[in-house]
Specification:
By secondary structure, the protein is of the alpha/beta class. The protein contains eleven helices and ten strands. It has helices spanning about 15-30, 45, 50-55, 60-75, 95-105, 130-135, 145-150, 170-185, 210-230, 245-255, 275-285, and strands at about 5-10, 35-40, 85-90, 110-115, 140-145, 160-165, 190-195, 235-240, 260, 290. The protein has a ten-stranded mixed sheet, with helices on both faces.
Length: about 290
């Protein structure tokens, strides 16, 4: 059964967290959920060496830092998230590992990870904590785009159109079903995006012109079967080329408010995050939910 009742929202007290809070308001129009605000304190040696503080000062510094952050967390986003039932949690350790452990242990349905803006450089960068959470978390992960910019938009934020990118791997049925349940709860239309392989030869010459149509035709048959199983009747958008670029371009062209993509279904070095997921997240013009 599809549920979205518990959301983990890691915060670092920056403006992008305030921007992400506005996205939570938009999700709240579709789902009734509780929010857990979590801040992770890295161990002191992550920030200072023993030589910087001196062995005798480590304990004193740690206690003072913990108390100050606890006070900051107590009232952070009080006004922005006043419509939610809130839980505030202070963790200590490696940020990504602690967030994943907490999410898995407490059966979170979604982790909200607002990413840095970085302007034009965002397509080349993804924070290390976000990348690790994407790789290791069991539940879906929300990554927001340029959350600092959301604060400058005074208009209410709504989810009106959602896209789902399918690569037709074995996990596509699960991803489409999740997207179907999500859009049904939000009562918004769903579009399916599929990127066929590039048909350009090594020499720069193209294969027969109908190869692209043949790829799309075969993919269309598979997508039709997936839609029948999921009970959807979504429009299907095809493009050829680099998946990261083309998925993002279609999301922009079709004005998606949310994009849903898949991650690998296995653990380990080659598991979890699919080959093009990072690229899509970096380039997407809208928030992405990786399931």
């Amino acid at each position: 059964m599809f549920t979205l009742k518990n959301v983990l929202f890691p915060v670092d007290f920056s403006n992008r967290c305030r921007g992400a809070a506005r996205i939570l308001e938009a999700l709240h129009q579709c789902f009734q959920f509780e929010v857990t605000l979590a801040h992770v304190l890295p161990p002191p040696h992550f920030e200072y060496s023993m030589a910087d503080l001196g062995g005798g000062l480590i304990q004193e510094y740690t206690a003072a830092r913990t108390e100050q952050v606890r006070k900051d967390l107590e009232y952070f986003l009080d006004e922005e998230l006043k419509m939610f039932k809130l839980r505030r949690v202070l963790l200590e350790g490696d940020p990504a590992r602690k967030l994943v452990e907490y999410a898995n242990t407490h059966q979170m349905d979604l982790i909200v990870m607002p990413t840095h803006g970085y302007g034009g450089f965002r397509r080349f960068m993804l924070g290390s904590v976000t990348a690790k959470v994407l790789h290791d978390a069991d539940c879906p992960v929300f990554t927001g785009v340029a959350m600092e910019d959301v604060l400058e938009t005074e208009k209410p934020i709504h989810i009106r159109k959602v896209g789902v990118a399918l690569d037709l791997s074995p996990s596509s049925a699960r991803i489409l079903q999740w997207a179907a349940n999500f859009t049904k709860a939000c009562n918004v239309p769903l579009s399916i995006v599929h990127i066929t392989p590039s048909v350009e030869g090594m020499s720069g010459e193209y294969f027969e012109p109908n190869w692209r149509e043949r790829f799309a035709e075969e993919a269309g048959k598979t997508i039709a079967d997936l839609q029948q199983a999921a009970g959807t009747n979504a429009e299907v958008l095809f493009e050829a080329g680099d998946p990261g670029f083309q998925v993002s371009a279609l999301a922009r062209k079709n004005q998606f408010d949310m994009l849903i993509i898949g991650r690998g279904s296995t653990s380990g070095v080659f598991g979890r995050i699919r080959a093009h997921a990072y690229s899509i997240i970096r380039q997407a013009p809208c928030p992405v939910i990786s399931v």
